[in-house]
Amino acid sequence: MADLARYSLLAAVLILSACANVPVSRPEAVNVKTGTLTPEYSSFNAKVLSEAGSIDTSFVTSLRPEIETVTRLESAYTYKFGEAREQLRVGDAVSTSGMWGSSVRYGGMQFGTRTETRSDIITNSGLAASGLAVLPTVADALFASAGDPGASLAQQNLSVDRSWRTGGLTASDALGRSVAIEAPMIASTRLVEEGCSDLSVGAGKVRRDYAIVSNEYGPTFANTTVTCGVPLGFTVEGHGEYIADETAAVGIGVARRIGPFGTASFSYASSRADAGTGWLAGMGFEHRNDWFSVALRSRIQSREFRGAGATVLDDPIMQRDLASVGVNVTKDANLSLAYATQTTWSRERMNVIALRQSLAVGRGALSMSAGHSLEENIGSSIFVSYKLPFGFARQHRSLVQEFEPIILNPTLIQDYE
């Protein structure tokens, strides 16, 4: 009987997806999406939109008898204040992170003009997370694929492996669900115009056992990110994050474009937790044009520093350095190189180097991805893939993008008709 109920529920989801394109009179609309995560899991998302705001909800269904048949992922109402940029979200949200901070999933409220987090943070909603729902970064995933479990990944029973089909990184949770990680290793620095209209304020409770149970919330959480453009072309950012009985951290970031050379940034933060009072300092530089791109990030921190993403660590990071270079070699070929290294306070060091090349061959694209860890007993890997589309293709150049070690999309963008 229980199996019949599960199959009936999945059938209902498929029927709803078939009806998703039914037109609704303006100014309101209804969007429904379904997807299959694995043969045992399906996802469902529904959103009702109007000129004033939207209501959205999502959940996953499962055929496995040992877990819940339906598990809620996110539910929220978003209200837009007329023509203003401000909006209010009530329900489940992802916190902003600033230049140096972490993002978490929480239930509560979020207000401001900026609601998205840094592009290097993995926000895929289909992954289950044990414990507090702190979101890992692509750098965390890259080190995890080379043998280091990583702070956020280990705490949440997440693992990272290379896809045998593409060579890209895939993250897997304890329930067997896996997703491709599609995000850059180094996020671009945000520069804003003069004024302090770029802000986000959030408060509520951190999600616990996200996508495993529906309505489990943990300690009280709050965070604030305010970014201002000041005279002389500087962008100044203030960011703070707080988890009750865990940690409180506050810091500042400064960035400026240095003429045609690129953008430089610096950040500093201080935290207070059971481990004591700690500090973090970071710096970065990036340059991008039509022919090549360079991005550098470095951070160093004291043993006692604890942000929202590292509240429980036996061996915290002491230093992490990231570098990437991308070059348009010819009209039809692109070469990207990335290097990442980190040292913990117990002097454990990891070095990872990755190379990617994309080349247009006929109407298709040939991609090669190689990775190597400089540590013993880790080894190397190389993946080669060729994509040949059906139909006709026209090719045009794209700007060089910062190295994304887990994506094998060719540099040439191809539109198929």
What does this structure look like?
By secondary structure, the chain is mainly beta. Among the domains are: 1-80, no CATH class; 245-416, Maltoporin, Chain A (Beta Barrel), CATH 2.40.170.10. Helix content is 7%, strand content 54%. It is built from 3 helices and 25 strands. The protein has a 20-stranded antiparallel beta sheet that branches. Strands 9-10-11 form a 3-stranded antiparallel beta sheet, with helices on one face. The chain has a two-stranded antiparallel sheet with strand order 24-25. The longest helix has 17 residues, at 2-18.
Per CATH, the class of the domain at 245-416 reads Mainly Beta
Give the overall silhouette.
globular
Integer average pLDDT:
79
Total number of beta strands: 25
Question: If you consult CATH, what is the topology of the domain at 245-416?
Answer: Maltoporin, Chain A
For the sheet with most strands, the description reads: 20 strands, antiparallel
CATH superfamily grouping of the domain at 245-416: Porin, LamB type
Q: What percentage of the residues does DSSP assign to strands (E)?
A: over 45%
Distance from N terminus to C terminus (CA atoms, Å) equals: 48 Å
Question: Which percent bin holds the helix content?
Answer: under 10%
Find the structural class using helix and strand composition: mainly beta
What CATH architecture label of the domain at 245-416 applies? Beta Barrel
Sketch the topology as an H/E string, one letter per element: HEEEEEEEEHHEEEEEEEEEEEEEEEEE
Structural Rg = 22 Å
Sequence stretches where pLDDT stays below 50 over 5 or more residues:
1-27, 393-417
Total number of helices: 3
